[in-house]
Structures are given as structure tokens and as C-alpha cells.
Amino acid sequence: YNHRLQRTEKLKIISDLAASVAHEVRNPLQVTRGFLQLLAARTDEKDKPYFELATNELDRAAEIITDFLTFAKPELDTIVRLDLSKEIKKIEAIMTPMAAMHGGILVFSGESEIPIYGNSSKLKQALINIIKNSIEAIGKNGVVEIGVFEEGGDAIVRIADNGQGMEESQVAKLGVPFFSTKTKGTGLGLMVTYRIVEVMKGSIKVFSAKGKGTEFTIRFPLAEPIPLPHQVDD
Ligand code: ADP
Ligand code: MG
């Protein structure tokens, strides 16, 4: 018999294992976070910063796990018809506080009802990872513009910041696993984004100028319009 596992079977086992470990670790992190917040509410004012630090570090761990989970299992579980504008509105609600914390603002604009096919939570993860980098790249008076629109039969998301920008050599490394210029970076964020966008049959273009800012253009195929019920002339 063949007592050796084939390479693809091995990879499947490793990625299943990674996914289940990541999943199991996420729950205790959530619970711990909840109790920390509870304790923070009844603690001395002078000790509050420690609770905030601890909570932030837990969030960081959760983020790494989320990215890692997608790395191990990038395929979309369920693909449905989505309205890209609606998805962006949800992202706005999630990311606005983070931008404020960094002293910058998010400016949203766009058309309504842009139908695409995809998975809502993966799409969110892909776009949030780009927006998070923009927020981390901006300084005081930083602005991140996020626009959604249709162009040439495609659905487009444009994310532009006036942050620190990148050299061309840096742009070339985007999406490569573990490429990071941050002391606390994982270098997994954009790799995950690129994989998700690829699975959604989309593409990403990046334009960046050192000291000026960065612009990501993400393009997805539009879903075909839902046919209107047959009209009867009378
Ligand atoms: P991480 O954020 O953990 O470093 P990412 O994959 O999200 O990993 O990003 C990789 C690197 O790409 C970052 O460390 C940074 O150098 C660069 N980068 C990505 N987006 C931007 C941006 N908007 N402005 C400047 N640099 C960026
Ligand atoms: Mg990142």
C-alpha cells in the first residue's frame, strides 16, 4: 500500500489544522478581552492605560490570527451577490474610529448599488487590510479617501491616502508574505488581500509616491443586472 501521504493531502491537513487552532485560540482571546474591559471600568484612573495596552495587544493577536486563518484557507465559503456600496458603508462604520485614533479622517464617496459576486466577510477583510495600512501611513491631518464606482464594466474601489508613500522597490514587494517595514508588522495583511481579490476574480493596481501618498485601485467584475420582469406594453 501507499503509506505516504501525497503532498497535496499533507498541505490540506496542515491548513485544516492551522485553521482549527486559529479558530480555537480566537475564542479565549475574545473572552479575555471582555473581562479586561469589565475590570478597566472599575479600576483606578491611573491604571487604565495598562488595560488599554493589554486590550490593544489582544486585538493585535486576534488580527494576526484572522490573517493567518485566511492564509491557510483563502477560499471563499459562500459566494453571493453583494452590493459593493453597502459593504463599503459597513467598513466605514468599523474603520472611522481607528482613523480618528491616528489623528486622521476617512472620506467616503461613491455610487449606490454596485453588484458584484463575493463573500462579504472576506471582502471586508481584504479592504480593511488596505485601509488599515493607509491609516497607519498617515500622520496628523492625514486623509484617506475611499471611493466606489463603476467604470468600463467593472466595479472599482479606490483607496487613496496622503501618507508617507513608498519607493518603487517597496511597491514591488507588496503582497509578498512577511514583507513589512513596521516594527510590529506581520507582513501578512496585503498577502491576504491579494489572495482574496484573486479568488474574487479581481485585480489590484498600486500607485505610490514617497512622501506624497499611496493609491490602491481594486477592480472586480460587475455582476450582471437582475433582469426586470417582462414589461407589457398597453
Ligand atoms: P504590515 O502592515 O503588517 O506591515 P502589510 O502586508 O499590510 O503588512 O503591508 C506591507 C508593507 O507595505 C507595510 O509594512 C508598508 O511598508 C507597506 N505599505 C502598505 N500600504 C501602505 C501605504 N498605504 N502607505 C505606505 N506604505 C504602505
Ligand atoms: Mg498591514
UniProtKB/TrEMBL annotation:
<feature type="domain" description="Histidine kinase">
    <location>
        <begin position="20"/>
        <end position="224"/>
    </location>
</feature>
<protein>
    <recommendedName>
        <fullName>histidine kinase</fullName>
    </recommendedName>
</protein>
